[in-house]
Amino acid sequence: MEIFILADEDQKSEILSISPTDKASITFASNMPEENDWKNYDAFFLLSYYRQINPSKLAGKRVYINEVNTTLAELNFPDNFCRINGWKGFLKRPVWEVATSKPQKNEEIFHFLNRKVILVKDEPGLISARVISMIVNEAFFALGEKVSSEKEIDMAMKLGTNYPYGPFEWAKKIGIEKIYDLLKKLSEKEDRYIQAPALKKIYSETFGMNL
């Protein structure tokens, strides 16, 4: 099986942190190959960008896009497309979440990457990004209410839950805008995702937005 992965250096490094199998034939690149060469690949992982690509051009191929917020239904993509979470820190995990309407071939493809796959609903945030964003939001509520400092909250979460990062470390690693945008979308249907005032404040100050 020939796998093409469109990724930046950080994403490539995370994927290679768990070595693919010896039988894997993987091509990493920062740009898509010439269209005439697309036929040489069985599966595509588009982690850096995908919206510039005409989905119909990849008909018959298995395509995984790094898209946390927007569902496949909203994108109106064909059923050979799947969503994964390519946020920083998530690609080095041994289990990847996949939202797809066609579960066939996933385990075979992910076997070559030396990963396991869990199928999830085609919903904003998938599972892990939704959970982490909620934890980050609660941490900003605590910060705004002066419960504790960023450093102390991060330390408490790591010691108490054995998480690799504290909520503020997660926010900086992933990008505050990604956390904010996901929470904003989720809050359109559920009030529990309404952004903490302290999170809105730092987002506004960082990006010059008048919220």
Quick summary:
The chain is α/β, with parallel strands linked by helices and 211 residues long. The chain contains 8 helices and 7 strands.
How does this structure look, described?
The strands form two sheets. This protein has a five-stranded parallel sheet with strand order 2-1-3-4-5, with no helix packed on it. It has a two-stranded parallel sheet with strand order 6-7. Strand 1 (2-6), helix 1 and strand 2 form a beta-alpha-beta unit. The protein is α/β, with parallel strands linked by helices. The chain is globular, with a radius of gyration of 18 Å. The chain starts with a strand and ends with a helix. It has helices at 9-16, 72-75, 106-112, 128-144, 150-161, 167-174, 176-187, 197-207, and strands spanning 2-6, 25-29, 43-46, 62-66, 81-84, 95-99, 116-120. Helix 4 packs across helix 7 and helix 6 packs across helix 7 (176-187).
Taken as a percent bin, the fraction of beta residues is 15-25%
Give the termini distance in whole angstroms.
Answer: 48 Å
How many helices does DSSP assign? 8
Instruction: Characterize the overall form.
Output: globular
Mean pLDDT: 93
Sequence of strands across the biggest β-sheet: 2-1-3-4-5
Helix content: 25-40%
Q: Provide the gyration radius in Å.
A: 18 Å
SSE order, one letter for each helix or strand = EHEEEHEEHEHHHHH
Largest sheet: 5 strands, parallel
Low-confidence spans: pLDDT under 50, at least 5 residues?
Answer: none
Could you say which structural class the secondary elements and strand pairing correspond to?
A: alpha/beta
User: What is the number of E strands?
Assistant: 7
